[in-house]
Specification:
By secondary structure, this protein is an alpha+beta fold. The protein contains three helices and three strands; from the N terminus they run ββαβαα. The protein has one domain. The termini are far apart.
Length: 69
């Protein structure tokens, strides 16, 4: 999978392909993960004022930034 590919589940969690559950796993199926379509990215950006990002990647960046300051 492409790391830049973003996915989300029906609960609204967003993950890059590196941090999403393995495709075909029980978690993938139960939580109903799927790729974010272009039109959904546009709608997300219009509503939130920013593009969708992987929640895990963003948490890692915040932790590194906090540790550095």
């Amino acid at each position: 999978m492409n790391r830049n590919m973003l996915l989300w589940n029906e609960a609204g969690r967003i993950a890059c392909s590196e941090h999403a559950p393995f495709r075909g796993s029980d978690t993938w199926c139960v939580e109903r993960w799927r790729p974010i379509r272009v039109c959904e990215r546009v709608d997300f950006e219009a509503e939130m004022g920013r593009g969708p990002t992987c929640e895990t990647c963003e948490a890692i960046k915040r932790r590194v930034t906090e540790a550095a300051s």
